[in-house]
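Here is one such protein, fold included:

. . .
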Amino acid sequence: MDEPLSADLARLETIWAWARATSAAEGPWLCGAYSAADAFFAPVATRIATYDLPVREPAMAYVEAHLSHPSFLRWRALGLGEGADQDVYRRDGPRRPWPGPVA
C-alpha cells in the first residue's frame, strides 16, 4: 500500500471517529440512526472490503455494518442481477468471493 492510500484511510478513520464522537452515536452508524452520511460512505465501505484494505477495528465494524445491512444487500443483489449498463464497465476478468455476507 502506498503512502497516499494509507493517508486516505487514516483520514477516513478520523472522520468516522469524529462523527461518532460528536453525535454520541450508539450502534453502528455515524450519527445514530442510518443517515445520508452513511449512504454517502456505503461505496467507500465496499471498496475497503473488496480490496481488503487495512483499517482498525472501529472502522472495520462500520464497514461490516454496511455489508450486512438489508438495504445494502438488496442494492448489491440488484446490481449483480442487472449487471453493467455500459460496455466500459463490463469486465470478464476473474472474480474472488465477496468479502461480506450473502443474503
